[in-house]
Structure to design on (348 residues):
């Protein structure tokens, strides 16, 4: 398949997933307004961080005046999973120079990873161009929805508890991620530890809870065995 | 937090996130693939992180350090949204059902 056709194939494959990104992107914009932060910060987060779940967590923490180092640490813990994506993608793109891998890394998302690795197995596309079609589409939709979210969020009446959309978005990501026994254990321990430490200083409950949950998942895997195919199914 | 500090946080978080994304893409030729131990642990990051984010936010209404008043309406609305998430696996329907549930519950409590 030539370059152009590969880009088009990527766009076509990602299209149904883009619909799933829309509400998430709108929340990433609206939550900034709901938290009383400067609206431009929403765009800053979407362009510089470009990772939905971590953006929402950062907005939440920044809105409550959390410690700056804790905010950064929280973002990095949430985004750690992308190290796995980086590793899975690398062998397929070994024809690219280091410089060419910079945009690949910047555009890496759950969707770009999942679709590309699946399609690269079939080996019927020009890989970097297919990746570009998928990943750049996600980027464009994400940035657009962030801006729309800021505008819409500013005009939602006060009686609608818009900030509640943030935990609800995480809930929508959590539920499909816990359908195995080991991952269910990771979630149970992560949630419980974070709850117990909810009043801990510096909002460290999240980071400690997350690490405890990961540890519990690894231990549980030794006991009950590997979950049947639990891929990170979250949406940005 | 002062605005300059807000932007500094966003910038550092962005650079750090890029480093995570670039990690193995950058060093693959030298190190080969991810050590299996690390790969195994990374698989549990999504469920652990999302649960650690969701549970305190529903129980304590997402209030930060120090203040911890239980928010029963949010727990109930969250349970409704969790059921919807389980059956639909849709972000949109989860958000809509949870917000509607919370608004309705707040109205009911206001009436009683």
């Amino acid at each position: 398949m030539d370059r152009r056709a590969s880009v088009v194939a990527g766009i076509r494959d990602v299209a149904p997933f883009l619909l799933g990104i829309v509400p998430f992107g709108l929340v990433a914009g609206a939550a900034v307004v709901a938290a009383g932060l400067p609206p431009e910060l929403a765009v800053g987060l979407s362009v510089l961080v470009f990772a939905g779940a971590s953006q929402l967590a950062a907005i939440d923490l920044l809105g409550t005046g959390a410690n700056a180092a804790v905010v950064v640490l929280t973002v990095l813990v949430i985004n750690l999973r992308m190290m796995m994506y980086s590793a899975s993608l690398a062998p397929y793109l070994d024809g690219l120079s280091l410089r060419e891998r910079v945009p690949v890394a910047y555009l890496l998302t759950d969707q770009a990873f999942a679709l590309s690795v699946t399609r690269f197995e079939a080996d019927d596309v020009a890989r970097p161009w297919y990746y570009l079609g998928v990943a750049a589409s996600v980027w464009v939709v994400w940035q657009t929805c962030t801006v729309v979210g800021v505008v819409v969020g500013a005009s939602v009446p006060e009686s609608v508890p818009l900030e509640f959309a943030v935990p609800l978005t995480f809930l929508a990501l959590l539920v499909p991620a816990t359908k195995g026994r080991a991952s269910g254990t990771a979630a149970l321990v992560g949630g419980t530890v974070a709850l117990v430490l909810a009043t801990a200083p510096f909002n460290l409950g999240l980071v400690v809870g997350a690490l405890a949950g990961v540890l519990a998942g690894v231990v549980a895997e030794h006991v009950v065995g590997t979950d049947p195919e639990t891929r990170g199914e979250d949406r940005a | 937090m002062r605005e300059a500090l807000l932007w500094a946080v966003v910038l550092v978080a962005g650079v750090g996130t890029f480093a995570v994304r670039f990690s193995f893409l950058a060093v693959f030729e030298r190190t080969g693939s991810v050590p299996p131990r690390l790969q195994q642990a990374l698989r549990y990051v999504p469920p652990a992180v999302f649960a650690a984010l969701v549970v305190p936010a529903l129980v304590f209404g997402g209030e930060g350090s120090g203040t911890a008043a239980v928010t029963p309406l949010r727990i109930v609305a969250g349970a409704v949204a969790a059921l919807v998430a389980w059956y639909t696996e849709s972000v949109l329907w989860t958000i809509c059902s949870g917000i509607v549930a919370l608004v309705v519950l707040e109205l009911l409590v206001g009436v009683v």
Observations:
- Residues 15 and 62 of chain A are 33 Å apart (CA to CA).
- Residues 3-154 of chain A form one domain.
- Chain A touches chain B through 110 residues (CB under 8 Å).
